[in-house]
Write a structure and sequence with these properties.
It is built from 2 helices and 3 strands. It is an alpha+beta fold. The protein has a domain of 37 residues. A 3-stranded antiparallel beta sheet has the order 1-3-2, with helices on one face. The mean pLDDT is 94.
Amino acid sequence: MPLMRIQLDSDKNTARRVLELHQAGKVHHESRDAAREEVWRHGRTPAAEPVFVGTTNGEPVRLIYDVEVYLDITR
């Protein structure tokens, strides 16, 4: 399955919290849901749950998710 990389705008505190949850083996549901919605906005259908990859170092901070998508199915 192909991957779609999604970047979500965030603030430093939220990004730190998402990273801490990820390191503890937990999920930040709000950002994961936002990543899934972004895939739908791009006209693709998610094939799996978004996977947190990390954050950017720039300003604004962005959360990075990879999402498996179906190739030939669009909304």
